[in-house]
Amino acid sequence: MIFEQIATGGCQSYLVGCPDGCVAALIDPEIRQIDRYLGALQRDGLRLRYVIDTHTHADHFSAAHEIAKRLGVAVVTHRDSPAPYAELRLQDGDMLVIGNIKLHAIHTPGHTRDSMCLLTSDRLFTGDTLLIGATGRTDLPTGDPDALYESLFNGILKLDPALKIFPAHDYKQRSSSTIADELANNPRLQKRDRVEFVEMMRHLNLTAPTHLTEALRTNMTGGKTVAQLLAEAGAKTPFMSLAELSARVARSRDIVVLDVRERDAYAAGHVPGARHLPRGQLELRVNDELPDPTARIVTVCEFGKISTLAAATLRDLGFLRAAALDGGMKGWREGGLPVETT
To answer: Are 236 and 277 found together in one domain?
Structure first.
């Protein structure tokens, strides 16, 4: 087996490949590591057959949908997953065949309704059902501590104690563990009475994941993250430096500086000579405000993000000389450059 564990902070994803069949599966991929996954596949001469999410992630952004679109492979989830882009929905007992490798699906609800583990001959990919030194939390949408108890104590913990476990998160700086080690040393697994375990899980008082709302939205629907939108806009938009714009404004060069912030922010201080057109009104007013599609335009916002989206929109509309100011008004002010107020 070709096996690679790829960490993104505390998140763990796994590339499992068969060298004989030159095929692979990717388990719990994270959106920021797409290029790394693609590079690993090419390096090892593997063709991706499946991209798998062990559950609906609430704390990071799954790359499954994007990878599936790029490579034309099936997204695999449990049948209870809400993701509309899942093409292959597994039930408990189903098996995926990747060359000589067989992945057996075990439905393990508790952390989420759609949680599953994946079993091979010598290892278990546990998703967020069982972590190293912990378990998945049960206080997020579709979580159920009673179901988690069942999935653990009457499910995967009855498997071979020597099985290595590879979870979707690792907060202990350990790459793997075994079922035996977890039974002996995992604090949460010492509560082996159902009532005590459920009571413990209901009173962990954990903080909510940083990107909870956005992660659930994108992972449940296949929608894009804000970072994806900004990256896509930035990929098709050139930028202008603060120094370059300052020099061009000072020389009164033929350039339209378009401030896309709200009126109060614009009035409090803007690039000298800048025109005001809020981002929210751009598409509706662009024909009246910018009649010349050949004009050179530099969009400006506070931090350089909204202006990137605005410049990308302008270029989509045919203003092919539009660019965004790198650093925004925050950088402009911090650089001691002149501002106008109205």
So the answer is: yes
What CATH number does residue 108 fall under? 3.60.15.10
pLDDT tens readout for residues 217-268: 998 898 889 989 999 999 999 999 999 999 999 887 789 999 999 999 999 9
CA diameter of the chain: 77
Contact 220, 56 (CB under 8 A): yes
Going by the DSSP 8-state scheme, the letter that residue 225 receives in this structure is: P
Q: What is the mean pLDDT of the segment spanning 189-209?
A: 93
Closest CA to 116 of 153, 154, 77: 77
8 closest CA partner among 42, 39, 34: 34
Tokens 């989420």, located at residue: 112
Residues 148 and 286 in one domain: no
Domain annotation covers residue 141: yes
Identify whether the C-beta of residue 259 lies closer than 8 Å to the C-beta of residue 271. Answer: yes
Task: Count how many domains the chain has.
Answer: 2
What per-residue confidence (pLDDT) applies to 147? Answer: 98
Which residue range is the domain that position 84 belongs to? 2-223
Looking at residue 329, which CATH number applies to its domain?
3.40.250.10
Cα gap 259→275, rounded to integer Å: 6
The encoded tokens of residue 244 equal 């370059």
